[in-house]
Design a protein that fits this description.
This protein is α/β, with parallel strands linked by helices. Helices cover 46% and strands 13% of the residues. It has helices at 3-6, 8-20, 29-41, 46-57, 64-76, 100-108, 118-125, 132-147, 191-201, 211-224, 233-236, and strands at residues 80-83, 95-98, 151-154, 169-172, 179-183, 204-208, 228-232, 247-249.
Length: 252
């Protein structure tokens, strides 16, 4: 990685980090870029963060040095907490968040106020550690929505006042309506809930893990006679080219 690829600001930050870090630990420019990306975005899915750093460095996807920075080096320095919960089938999804020491490095580097980490937000506001399958799916849905140009707010403030339902996410894109969406681990016969969403925003919007689970939820939409969008991570993860919503139900 040469200096022109990552910009003078990252070089300056790396030089500052070298002066600030005490003891044997010294941050490389790549590690500084990884830490800065986490600090400024608040994203939790390691693969999403890695893709941002790879793009900034003109690296091909899956670059091993970038992967090591996020999943090995920064955690070993005590700057990042890593988790690898179950994802789809036997696969696992790497999640990361800054430690207190990691946030302090960002502050000392003059990066301003740290963005709230999405993993921490879900853990604190939605019993995320207890409902791990839901947490992992929701974080992955946010990642996949952003891959398709949407902006995402998880557990939006004030989104459930007087509604009787609480959204997991608010997603929006220029030229499209704002949509409150939920993540469901599986179809659970929640017909009354989908009716409530229809009353609230004229549609229900749900992401789930698999195609079969999505099909089950779409059948619930039909039973509820609501207009609805459905999608699943199994489909979304294959490519960033397709639409966010894989299927629609109509309130016929």
């Amino acid at each position: 990685m040469n200096d022109t690829m990552i910009g003078s600001d990252v070089i300056r930050l790396a030089e500052t980090a070298s002066r600030l870090m005490t003891g044997p630990v010294r941050l490389t420019m790549l590690q500084v870029l990884a830490l800065r990306t986490m600090y400024q975005t608040g994203y939790a899915v390691a693969q999403e963060l890695r893709s941002l750093v790879e793009a900034a460095c003109y690296y091909a996807p899956g670059h091993q040095r970038v992967k090591r920075a996020f999943l090995t080096e920064l955690p070993e320095m005590g700057l990042v907490i890593k988790g690898t919960p179950q994802f789809i089938g036997p696969s696992r999804l790497a999640l990361v968040r800054l430690t207190k020491a990691g946030r302090e490095v960002g502050e000392r580097l003059g990066l301003g106020e740290a963005a709230e980490n999405e993993w921490e937000r879900v853990n604190e506001l939605h019993r995320g550690e207890e409902w791990e399958r839901h947490t992992v799916g929701l974080l992955a849905f946010a990642w996949q929505a952003r891959r398709r140009g949407y902006q995402v707010k998880l557990l939006p403030e004030g989104g459930s006042r007087g509604w009787g339902v609480t959204p997991d996410a608010l997603i929006w894109k220029e030229g499209e309506r704002n949509i409150y969406a939920e993540f469901e681990v599986r179809a659970r016969g929640r017909v009354a809930r989908w009716c409530k969403w229809d009353e609230t925003q004229s549609l229900a919007a749900v992401c789930t893990y698999t195609v079969s689970a999505r099909k089950g939820i779409m059948r619930e939409f039909e039973q509820a006679r609501v207009f609805g969008y459905g999608t699943d991570l199994q489909t979304l993860i294959r490519s960033d080219k397709g639409p966010l919503w894989a299927e629609r139900a109509y309130n016929l």
